[in-house]
Amino acid sequence: MEELQTLRSQLLLLHNQLLYERYKREQHAVRNRRLLRRIINATALEEQNNAMKDQLNLQSVDITSLRDSLQVEQQRYRQLWEDRETVVTRLHSQIRQLQQSRDDYYTKNQELQSKLQECQKRMDDLEAALQRANNRVCHTGHLLNQMTVKLSNSESTQQQMSFLNKQLLLLGEAHKLSMQESQHAGTSNTK
């Protein structure tokens, strides 16, 4: 009986130890599963981290390339801006010169127009004076003819004739001078 009780107590002790070992094994399994999950998560995170590092390296290369290209484009833009400013300055200068030339041309044109009007007026006056002189010469010639017919036999007629001849010569000279002046005025007007 004592042996049986001893065996029973040993069996119970073994059973309890078995239960304890099973409990410990389950706890270890739970812990192992938890650790395995952590390892899997850590591995996934490490792979993701490595992938992100690779992506970051690629993006760094892209950023460097973009910076270089931005510097090139900024340099080209500055050059284009300077060229544009040079062209704009030159065009403004040309516009000012053209405006000055236009103003000078307008002033000279106005002066020439006024001179032309003066010359035309003077030519009209000279033509009128020439016409009057011609009329006087014709009238004088007519009078001379009449006097010559009426007074051809008398001495007074001879004296008057010589006087009228002198007047005719003077009028002829006046006519010549008038013609020369008219021709001179015509030449000035043409100029």
Automatic annotation (TrEMBL):
Highest taxon in the source lineage: Eukaryota
Keywords: Coiled coil
Pfam family, one: Hamartin
Annotated InterPro entries: Hamartin (IPR007483)
Transmembrane segments: none
Residue stretches in coiled coil: 95-136
Classification via Gene3D superfamilies: 1.20.5.340
Protein name, entry field: Tuberous sclerosis 1b
